[in-house]
Amino acid sequence: xxxxxxxxxxxxxxxxxxxxxxxxxxxxxxxxxxxxxxxxxxxxxxxxxxxxxxxxxxxxxxxxxxxxxxxxxxxxxxxxxxxxxxxxxxxxxxxxxxxxxxxxxxxxxxxxxxxxxxxxxxxxxxxxxxxxxxxx
Length: 136
Description:
Elements: E1 5-7, H1 9-13, H2 20-30, E2 35-37, H3 38-50, H4 56-69, E3 71-73, H5 77-90, H6 94-105, E4 110-112, E5 121-122, E6 126-129
Parallel strand pairs: 1-4, 2-3, 4-6
Antiparallel strand pairs: 5-6
Helix pairs in contact: 3-4, 5-6
């Protein structure tokens, strides 16, 4: 069975990076059909509008592209409960723990994130990998 991978918000945003190595790495990840959560879409939208300064039309276009490339999991009460358990156990931020919970509930084996601890194995089955580090 093929491993399932999950992408954090920063992976999506690197598609827009001026750093061609990071943009290429992000594109390669997204072209594999990774999973994301609605939270990742929400966080991406916030950054596209506030920091990147995209118009609503441009943001919708970018998000539509992302949705065409990724499987999207919903936010559920189960995600929230699992996320709180993970935040307490692993000392993740609440937002990071919700992403980790969504990845676990989607039965993913790898979570790509630049913001979390590279190499951490969560619950013995989800490996966090920084696809932008020199060691990955």
